[in-house]
Amino acid sequence: MAVTMNDVARAAGVSLKTVSNVLNDYEFIRPATKQRVQDAIAELGYEANLTARSLRSGKTSMLGLVLSDLSAPYYAELASRLMKAAARHGYRVLVEQSDAEAAAELGALHGTFRQLTDGLLFTPLVVDAEAIAARAGRKPLVMLGEHIVDPRFDLVTVKNREAAAALTGHLLAGGRRRIAVIGADPGESAGTGGLRLDGYRTALAAAVIPYDPALVAPAQWRRDTGAAAVAGLLDKGVEFDAVFGLNDVLALGAMHELQVRGVKVPQDVAVAGFDDLDEGRFASPSLTTIAPGMDEIAERSIGLLLDRIAGREPSVQGVHVEAGFELKIRESAP
Amino acid sequence: MAVTMNDVARAAGVSLKTVSNVLNDYEFIRPATKQRVQDAIAELGYEANLTARSLRSGKTSMLGLVLSDLSAPYYAELASRLMKAAARHGYRVLVEQSDAEAAAELGALHGTFRQLTDGLLFTPLVVDAEAIAARAGRKPLVMLGEHIVDPRFDLVTVKNREAAAALTGHLLAGGRRRIAVIGADPGESAGTGGLRLDGYRTALAAAVIPYDPALVAPAQWRRDTGAAAVAGLLDKGVEFDAVFGLNDVLALGAMHELQVRGVKVPQDVAVAGFDDLDEGRFASPSLTTIAPGMDEIAERSIGLLLDRIAGREPSVQGVHVEAGFELKIRESAP
DNA sequence: CTGAAAGCGCTTACAG
DNA sequence: CTGAAAGCGCTTACAG
Predict the structure, then answer these.
(1) How many Cβ atoms from other residues are within 10 Å of residue A90's Cβ?
(2) Which of A58, A77, A227, B334 is the right S-S partner for A253, CB 3.0 to 4.6 Å?
(3) Domain check: are B171 and B266 in the same one?
(4) If DSSP codes are grouped into helix, strand and coil, which group holds residue A325?
(5) Mean pLDDT for chain A?
(6) Which residue intervals define the domain HTH lacI-type in the entry (chains A, B) (predicted)?
(7) Dist. CA B208–CA A280, nearest whole Å
(8) How far apart are CA A8 and CA B231, in angstroms?
(9) Are residues B138 and B115 in the same domain?
(10) Any residues with CB less than 8 A from the CB of B119 and at least 6 apart, and which?
(11) Residue A4 at interface with chain B, using a CB cutoff of 8 Å
(12) Which of A46-50, A56-60, B114-118, B196-200 holds the top average pLDDT?
């Protein structure tokens, strides 16, 4: 059997409580006692049993991360950084893939997944604020992304509108006038796609260029759907001189389709995305995009969640954090 | 407070043990009793406390997955599928990133990570078999990848040698004679890189073409390093008419560098990779590659690990599973 | 087929 | 500053 606190207590000649005090960095321990306990721990190779600690304390030292699909590059990158940020504070991250299904998204809010974690980083895609509020329980919950923007919930996000406007502004400055948008419904205004579309419209308005809904093609945010959306525009005979993929994989899929059809990028059509995936830097041509402050997002969301868990964050209302961004100009839209 | 088994027992008018029996699908329960318990569970909204169950039973229903970096596309894809396969059996997967550091790889073998999981899926990159054997403990451990091929350990992998030989054969059939290899040391023979290099050499030998170590460039398996390795070959004046990136990101990095330098792919130099990332399908040109049987790998490794956990797998020796592969011929090496 | 009791390894009031 | 005791919510022999 594994070494227990009892073994340590016996070896050090103290009580269980004293070992617990040492383990939990209780201040008022006589240095000599502390030393004896630490020696016993080292000698016996004692490792605290997290399960027992969890059962008693109600804390698991795990954070939950709910996202649709870990194999999507943006989420993989985000998960990786969140795990590293959490590790710095002594927490692990348990990932749950929802596949963008409502039942899975809601399921992560209670049941065993919730039990196993002290707080949740949640990237809802289909479920609405009411459904979440009804099920969220008392454990802290921080939203990532923009599907839910609600004063009841903490939220960490990028400056989507500003970033999309900056990118669109860059395309306009390059002389592009008919900029297709891939990944949103023409009338969309909420959620990540809606906010980015809104930024696009803002930049258009600033340049006194009318908004043409025919240039906006909805698509799920994948490479194949990005390619299909551009194919649809081309087949319908819609004219455009640039494509703004609302994220990088959409832009990359679109760029592929353009090239397959002999449309030259950027000469005939410029292409730009959003996310700054490593993949885009090595695409041909390399992809112009927005680099969201991923480290800032990871750091801030973990920080906020841990503050809530520890009761350090005083605000009763949701705290909304907006991370910065950077425009990365590359070959696909110089 | 949450509803406990005691509350359910009281509501159903039975003992704790009976509730436990119903929860654990014990066979011999009177149907009426079972029904009463299930009704009480439904009515109270009871959810079993996993932590308490773990402390008592020693099982956590979690599997550990140790890999170097979750943001690497192959690992992200693998993790995603492993999580889905595990979920089908009622298990979750807890991921640990080692950053290819020995301390982290060894650390995952004991301590809290091991405690929290019933078995480990391990992708070691730097640690050797002896170090693992010395620290592995009694919980099951299944190796993924080929860094450790040792009769003491279970292993699930692709047919690396055969796949690399098939790919090389395809390049040779296309008339390529000087095929550069990116991602291995010229003398390497063990590990994933070594096995793939070995397959390359086998195909070369079958075509009676001498092996030229000058064509083999070591590189970490990333895009930037793939680009740098090809740059190195070009700068040294090494002549080649094809590049075999030992995985897709290497090939994609190499392809980017070639194109930046005005080398036409595939006319001047054909490029091929290994992994069949979605990214490669949408690269320009699209990437010829090997599709490892990812679902087979995920399914078999989870199956094997769960068999070991349940004591169902009788073999004392390590079981070695080799998944199939498929050659995907695309534009970069038609 | 079901019950009463012990115990997994911790933390946490409560004393002193 | 430290000890003895209770208890977190389950599962598991042991009876009956």
Answers:
(1) 9
(2) A227
(3) yes
(4) strand
(5) 92
(6) 3-57
(7) 39
(8) 58
(9) yes
(10) B63, B64, B139, B140, B141, B142, B305, B306, B308, B309
(11) no
(12) B196-200
Looking at chain B, which residue has its C-alpha nearest residue A63?
Answer: B94
Q: What pLDDT digit, counting tens, does each position of B179-220 carry?
A: 999 999 999 988 899 999 999 999 999 999 999 999 999 999
* pLDDT tens figures, A22-33: 887 777 777 778
- Do B126 and B200 lie in one domain? The reply is no
Q: Which of B184, B185, B179, B240 is nearest to B211 (CA)?
A: B179
In this predicted model, which residue has the larger pLDDT, B245 or B146? Answer: B245
Number of H helices, E strands in chain A: 14, 12
CATH code for the domain in which residue A204 is found = 3.40.50.2300
pLDDT higher at A74 or A128: A74
Grouping H, G, I as helix, E, B as strand and the rest as coil, residue A238 is: coil
- Residue of A240, A113, A262 whose CA lies nearest to B83: A113
B1 band by pLDDT with thresholds 50, 70 and 90: low
Report the SS3 class of residue A206. Answer: helix
Question: Which residues touch B194 (CB under 8 Å, ≥6 apart)?
Answer: B146, B184, B188
- What residues does B153 pair with on adjacent strands? none
Residue of A118, A69, A287 whose CA lies nearest to B81 = A69
Measure, in angstroms, how far nucleotide D4 C1' is from residue A37 CA: 19
Distance CA B65, CA B60 (A): 14
Alpha carbons B23 and B18: distance in angstroms, whole number: 9
Which of A115, A203, A114, A124 lies closest to A157, judged by CA? A124
Is A54 an 8 Å CB contact of chain B?
Answer: yes
Please tell me which residue of chain B has the smallest CA distance to A256. Answer: B282
**Structural domains counted in chain A:** 3
User: Is the domain of B271 the same as that of B178?
Assistant: yes
| Whole-angstrom distance, CA of residue B224 vs CA of residue B3 | 54
How long a stretch of residues is chain B?
A: 334
Summarised one tens digit per residue, pLDDT across range B18-46 is 888 888 777 777 777 888 888 888 888 88
B262 part of contact set with chain A, CB < 8 Å: no
> What nucleotide is nearest A26 when CA is compared to C1'?
D1
